[in-house]
Amino acid sequence: MTKQSLTMPPTSTIEPHDPLGRPLKRTRRKEARPNEIVAAALAVFVDKGFAGARMDEIAKQAGVSKATLFVYFPSKDDLFKAVVRTNIIDRLTAFQSTVAHFQGSSGDLIALAMHKWWQEIGSTQAGGISKLIIQEAKNFPELAAFYQTEVMGPGLHLMQAILKRGIARGELRDLDLTNTVMGIMSSLLFLCLWRQAMGVDNPVCGPAIEPTAFIQNQIDILLSGIELKGNPPCV
Question: What is the CATH number for 211?
């Protein structure tokens, strides 16, 4: 007696039908489309650069028509700004609340800020935006000005506020705030660019870099130079 095998099609291939047996057209919420477009645009911008990114390629990757894309984002500039706002500015704004309510030491707050930046931005696709801006700022000065105003300015101001907090509490010595902040940010920018250009695990040149250990080492070096020892903090 032979066994007959009965095979069923994979569930993913079964299309929904109406009561009369007619296939139902798959739909998705219109509210999700802008987020899907922004996610696709981030991937294309980081891969191709701003100049090389094409709106039709972004639309295809997002699964929408080019006409639909332009309904939500009238120009490539508008779409790029939406990518920056969603992936960087919104996260920076959220962290401002963390700083305002932080109860620990200023050294711990500096460490939190640096590690959190890497976790939420530098280690993600959004980290490629920094490289894009550096490469293309000269050719697209309006976008560079937008990035300076909306990202770099607030980011530097927030780190300055953290350092001022430490000075006021007696935890940090008097500092050249501008250059200290630039030193902090430049170490993070280096790590971000290294990851984008070389890869941290198997770099094209130079040693492999473990990002968390690298950032912690930068924090240790920084705090050894700016913390006041033996003085109780003034709250």
Answer: 1.10.357
Inter-residue long-range contacts of 201-210, CB under 8 Å, 24+ positions, other chains counted: none
CA distances from 108 to 60, 99, 114, 189 (A): 44, 11, 10, 20
Residue type, 67: A
Residue 190 belongs to a domain: yes
Structure tokens given for 44: 């294309």
Give the CA radius of gyration of the chain.
24
Q: What is the pLDDT of residues 174-205, one digit of tens each?
A: 999 999 999 999 999 999 888 877 766 666 67
**Contact between 134 and 193 (Cβ < 8 Å):** yes
Task: Give the residues across from 17 on adjacent strands.
Answer: 23
Q: Is 161 among the domain residues?
A: yes
Residue 71 domain flag: no
62 vs 66: CA distance, rounded Å: 10
Cβ neighbors of 166 (< 8 A, separation 6 or more) are 105, 106, 107, 109, 110, 172, 226
Distance CA 233, CA 235 (A): 6
Prediction pTM value: 0.80
Residue 52 counted as domain residue: no
Can you give the residue range of the structural domain that contains 94? Answer: 85-226
Q: Please compute, for residue 93, the number of CA atoms within 13 A of its CA located in the half-sphere on the CB side.
A: 8
